[in-house]
Amino acid sequence: QLQFAESGGGQVQPGGSLTLSCAASSSTFDHVAIGWFRQVPGKEREGVSCTLNSDGNPYYADSVKGRFTISRDSAKKMVYLQMNNLKLEDTAVYYCAVCWGPTPLPDYGSWGQGTQVTVSP
User: Fold this and answer.
1) What pLDDT was estimated at residue 112?
2) Above 80 in pLDDT, residue 27?
3) How far apart are CA 75 and CA 69, in angstroms?
4) What are phi and psi of 30, to 5 degrees?
5) Which residues pair with 4 in a beta bridge?
């Protein structure tokens, strides 16, 4: 089962940028899609982006399309989320996980600790 370690979060002003990194621990990395999810207190975890969707392309939530870009480096077993033009509503704890489109597949990998992203003036 894959394990993940997220990093790169921080505090940024609206309009700013951050790049999140996700390090995976297993050789099965190359055989699964990996994505990013986020959660704010009191709300369900939301699928933000996944390296693969049912149409064969990366998945992005409507709220982040055109602002976020997901990428992966198989040699380093890393997945990245470049976040531009950040908005207040992007504030959340961000997690990476095995995914299929917007859906996490926790049977294939356990949730990491997450990384906090705070967007504030």
Assistant:
1) 86
2) no
3) 19
4) -70, -10
5) 24
> Quick one: pLDDT band at residue 78, thresholds 50, 70, 90?
very high
Q: Does pLDDT of 30 surpass 90?
A: no
Q: Average of pLDDT values for 116-120?
A: 98
Which tens digit of pLDDT belongs to each residue from 91-102?
999 999 999 999
Beta strands 68-73; 59-60: pairing state: unpaired
Q: How far apart are CA 34 and CA 11, in angstroms?
A: 24
Q: Give me the DSSP letters along the chain.
A: -B-EEEE--EEE-TT--EEEEEEE-SGGGGGS-EEEEEE-TTS--EEEEES--TTSS-EE-TTTTTTEEEEEETTTTEEEEEE-S--GGG-EEEEEEEEETTEE-GGGB-----EEEEE--
The radius of gyration computed from the CA coordinates of the chain, to the nearest angstrom, equals 13
Model confidence at 33: pLDDT above 90: yes
CA atoms in the 13 A half-sphere facing the CB of 53: 14
Report the alpha-carbon distance of residue 71 to residue 121 in Å, rounded: 28
